[in-house]
Each structure stands twice: as C-alpha cells, then as structure tokens.
Design goal:
Blueprint (H helix, E strand, L loop, with lengths): L17 H23 L8 E7 L9 H17 L5 E8 L5 H14 L4 E7 L12 E7 L10 H5 L9 H33 E14 L13 H12 L5 H5 L10 H11 L2 E10 L11 H20 L3 H12 L4 H6 L2 E10 L5
Parallel strand pairs: 1-2, 1-4, 2-3, 4-5
Antiparallel strand pairs: 5-7, 6-7
Length: 355
C-alpha cells in the first residue's frame, strides 16, 4: 500500500477527495447511533472517557470528519441528558509515510475548539497489525480504506499472472481466476483485521466502516474490479507503447471491492462482531454529479493512485492523464464503470463472546 498524494497542491489528496468526503458525510448517522448506544449501554456505567480511532485517516480536510462527528454526537447527547461529558481520546491512524504534518496541524485545532476535553494523537502503522492496547477502544471508524489489501495475491505475483491482460479475449478468460485470487486475499486480510480489532475493543465496542465494493456476486460482477478504470487506462498506454508491456504485466493494484453478501459472510464467519446495520449505496447515489465528470474524476483518481503508479512505472502521470481524458470523454465509458461500484457501510458491535 502507498499513501495518497501529499500536501495541499492541485494534485494532492487534500484538494481532490470530494467523493470520499461525500461518503463520510453519509456515515454520520451510523456514527451518531453508535455513540448513543455506547452512552446508553445497560452493561456499563456512563463512560468517564471514550477512546475513538479512525483507521486510514489519510490527510487533509477528510482526516477529522469521522472523529468530529463522534465528538459532536457525544456533546449533543450530554447536553440533551445533562451528563458530564467524558474525556475523549482520539487516535488517527494511517501508514507511516502518510502526510501526518497536515494531520497534526488539524489535531491541534480540534483540541482547542472542542468540549468534551479531547486528547489527540497519531498512530502510524498498517491496520493489518496490532495498533492499540487490549480492551482500550470504544469506537473505530474507517472510510475508503479497507478495500486496500495488505499485498497483491501471491498466487498471481509468484506465477507472473497479469492482473489485467491487455488482450481482451485473454483477459476475459482469466478474470474469474484473477477475481478469486483477489477475493481470497481480501477474505484473509479482512478476517485478520477483525481478529486484531476484537482484541483492542472493550466489551460492546462499536465499529463503523465504509468501503468501496461491487453490486452483487453475479457473473458479470466477477468480471469487474474496482480498479478497472485505472487498469483500462494503463492497458491503453501499454498497447500504444507508452509504458513497457512487461512492466504492465507485473503491475498489481492491492485493492479489492467485495459484494455486500461477501462482506456479510466474512464478518459472520469470523464471529468477533455482530452486524448492527449494513447499507449499500451506488457510488454516485445522492452525490454531487460534478464529482464524476471526467476531468474531476481523473483528478481524484490521480490523488489516490499516482504514488503507486509512479513507484512502478516512473514519470508517466501526465501521459496517464492525457490518455484518461481521451478515453473517458467518450460517451458512456466512465459512467458504465462507475455504475458497477457501490459503497458498503457497516455498523458492527463487538460480540460478547469474542476475545
């Protein structure tokens, strides 16, 4: 995994994350409901402190959206029921090479502007490893992060099987096997993620997550990956000789979008959490259509994928943008790809029997 584009410039994630921000705003009711449950739990006294973590916070204005929603929900509850606000400890997590400079600046403003008392910190590291002490967390939030895998499927990388073949016939023949390899990697990673978080939660702890996924488990769905728009543009560049075909064949995006049935099955099989609520929304549903014009979408994809593309191919982003503009300006191509994507939002409660 690679971090998003740094800084506050025109190509930065901070400047090009409107799609992710729109989904964060749609998560707020789930976060508010989770806070009310934590405040009214009959199994514990009203908490004197709460520990809240955002996993995969990235940087820029989106880094504080989810934890700010949780703090505001705590404040509203305490005002309504005349409770003494708990002290709140906030942890913002992302990869060690994330742009934490911007995050720390935002955190300092959060601490100054909020009641209840807020103690805030950053926690560098992968969410596929232990991050917090046993039994310490009340609430975990995560948006637009958990579709990133710990690594590309080894069955593909070890056997030099391209994830996205530039030959259309070969690609369609191989896609079911490619899909299964990615699906298994996601199942392994997400199961591991749930086991790790279960150890870090207090009894009755809550988790609210939203990830990019696919509409269903149907045959057509299995011929599509959530990174299809990027793979398609790179395949055009390989066909035109802009990037080396051998380089292209060895390029893997460690990202997978499950269906809601698939995600539900993994959660239930792992057993540490029970599903309180699951919502499936089209990627473009109830969102500003301006976010999905070819120009705007290209800029947002660049902010997310430029680091991983540059690491593998070198300085090719300007040509990538020109190719994307040429392809995505054709009627229906980009819209067809976006219509296959969904947001999967899930509210979970730590099961009483889990460790």
């Amino acid at each position: 995994m690679e971090p998003m584009n740094w800084g506050e410039g025109d190509t930065s994630y901070a400047h090009n994350s409107g799609i992710q921000n729109a989904e964060q705003n749609r998560m707020k009711p789930m976060i508010e409901a989770a806070i009310i449950d934590l405040c009214t739990s009959t199994s514990t006294l009203f908490p004197t402190n709460m520990v809240i973590a955002d996993l995969g916070c990235s940087s820029g204005p989106n880094a504080l959206v989810l934890v700010s929603a949780a703090i505001e929900a705590i404040r509203s509850y305490c005002v309504q029921f005349q409770r003494q606000p708990p002290e709140v400890c906030i942890f913002l997590n992302d990869l060690p090479n994330n742009d934490f400079n911007m995050v720390v600046k935002s955190l300092s403003m959060l601490r100054k502007s909020n009641e209840p008392i807020v103690v805030a910190s950053v926690t560098p590291g992968s969410f596929y490893e232990r991050l917090f002490p046993t039994g310490s967390l009340h609430l975990v939030c995560s948006s637009s992060s958990l579709h990133w895998l710990s690594k590309a499927p080894e069955v593909l990388t070890r056997n030099h099987i391209p994830a996205y073949n530039i030959d259309e016939h070969a690609r369609r023949e191989m896609l079911p096997m490619i899909h299964d390899a990615y699906a298994q990697q996601f199942k392994n990673d997400f199961t591991h993620f749930l086991k790790l978080r279960a150890k870090e939660f207090l009894p009755g702890g809550r988790m609210v997550i939203s990830i990019t996924g696919r509409h269903s488990n149907g045959i057509d769905s299995k011929l599509f990956h959530i990174w299809e728009p990027i793979g398609h543009i790179l395949s055009v560049m390989a066909l035109e000789g802009v990037i080396n075909k051998a380089k292209y064949d060895s390029f893997y995006i460690p990202m997978y979008g499950p269906s809601n049935e698939e995600l539900r099955g993994i959660i239930q099989e792992e057993g540490s959490f029970s599903i309180k609520e699951m919502v499936v929304r089209g990627l473009t549903s109830d969102a500003d259509s301006a976010l999905f014009t070819p120009d705007r979408y290209m800029s947002q994809m660049r902010a997310v994928f430029e680091p991983v593309i540059l690491k593998h191919f070198g300085e090719v982003m300007e040509e990538f943008m020109r190719t994307a503009e040429r392809r995505w300006s054709l009627d229906g191509i980009l819209r067809d790809q976006l219509d296959r994507l969904v947001w999967l939002s899930v509210s979970l409660t730590k099961a009483s029997s889990s460790n």
